[in-house]
Hints:
Shape: globular
CATH superfamily of the largest domain: Type I PLP-dependent aspartate aminotransferase-like (Major domain)
Strand content: 15-25%
CATH class of the largest domain: Alpha Beta
Strand order of the largest sheet: 4-10-9-8-7-5-6
Radius of gyration: 22 Å
Structural class: alpha/beta
Distance between the termini: 57 Å
Order of helices and strands: HEEEHHHEHEHEHEHEHEEHHHHEHEEEH
Number of helices: 15
CATH topology of the largest domain: Aspartate Aminotransferase, domain 2
Number of domains: 2
Largest sheet: 7 strands, mixed
Amino acid sequence: MSLAKIEPLFQSKLNHLQQQGVRKGEEKVVTGVLPPSAGFGPRYRLQGHDERAFLRMNSNSYLGLARHPAVIEAETRAVEEFGTGPGAVRFISGTFAPHIELERRLAAFHGREAAMLFSAAYATMTGVLPQLISEQTLVVSDALNHNCIINAIRLAHPAGKAIYAHSNISELENILNTNRDRYQRVCVVTDGIFSMRGDHAPLAELAACCARHQDDYAEGIVTVVDDSHGIGAFGKTGRGSEEVTGAQADILIATLGKSFGVNGGYVAASATTIAYLRETAPLYIYSNPITPAEAAAALAALDVLESPEGLQLLERLRDFSRKLRSGLQQLGFETLSGEHPIVPLFIRDTAKTAALVAHLFDHNILATGLNYPVVPQGDQEIRLQVSAEHTGKDLEYLLNVLADFRQ
C-alpha cells in the first residue's frame, strides 16, 4: 500500500488552485488575544508575527460572546461538573441535562415546539435535509445558497433539482408552476442571510409563493431556512431573517458557532418533525454531540442575548454596520445596503482583491478575500465582518487604511 501513485495528482490539484488564486494555503494561527485598550477593541497575536497585533475583521463572533465573562464562567462550571466531553453519542449515554435545557430554550426562542442539537451547523444541514427528501421530491434552491446546502442536496439524491436566480421569487413561482404534475413533494431551501453578501432572503414572499402552490403537490411544500449568519446578529432581538421579514419557515437551521460564541448547530421545528429527525438523521445518531460544557456556555450566551445587555449589543452591531457601509461608500468603494454585520467590499477582480487583502494585512488588519469559484466570476470581494467588540476607533482605522489604498 502506498500513496506514491496518487500524490502527484493531489499536487497537481494544489498547483491548479494556486494558479487560480483560490488556494487557501497555510492557516493563520492565533497565539494570543490582547484586551481592549486606548479606545480600540481586542487585538490578536499571530504565530510568526509575534511583535504585531491585528484587528480582526473576518470573525463570525458578531456579539463577542466567546469572550463574555458569563459565558466563560458557565462553561468552566460545567466542565468541572460534567467533564470535558460527552463520552458517547446521544442515544447511548451522551445526553446531559444542559443539552436538554438548551434544546428547550432554543425552541422557545424561535417560537417552535422543539429543537435538536448537532455537532455543527454544516452537520445539521447535511443531516437534516436528506431526511426531508424522498424519491418523489423536487428540491428547489437559491443560486447563492451556502456550500452545506449544495452538498446536502447532493447527498439526498432527490428526484429533481431546480435553482432559481438569487432571491428571485418570480423564478421560484415558475418552477413550482411547471412541476406540479411531476413530483409528490417539494422542498424549498434557502439561506436566511447569504454568507458572502450579508443580504437576506425575501422570506415573506417566499412563504406566500409556497402557500399558493401547497395544494398542487400531494405531500405539500416544505420550506427550510439556514439562518446561521442571521441568528444573534440580525433583527431587533437577534432572531434573524424571520424576525426582520415577519415570516417563519417550516424548518429553521442555525448555528451556535457564530453569535453565540460557542460550537455546534441546531434545527428547530414541530415536535413531530424533531422526533422523526432524532430517529433518522445519521449525523445526529452516530456523532457525538457538543460537550455538556459547550451547551452550558450556549445557554449563558442565550441569557445575554435575551437581556437588556443583548439588545444593546445588537444595536451597537447595527450602528457599526451602518457606519462601515457609509464610510466605504464615501471612499468610493462598492458595497450593499443593509444592517447585517457582513459588509461586502466588491472588488470584482481576483488580483486586485488579493492586493487589497495583502495591504490590509500589512497594516495589521485581518480580512478575507473571496474569489472565483467561491463567488461567481465578477463578484470577487472582501468580506468585512463587524463585531460588537469593535469600537469607533477600530472602524476609523480600517477606513483610513482603505483610503490609503484608494489613493
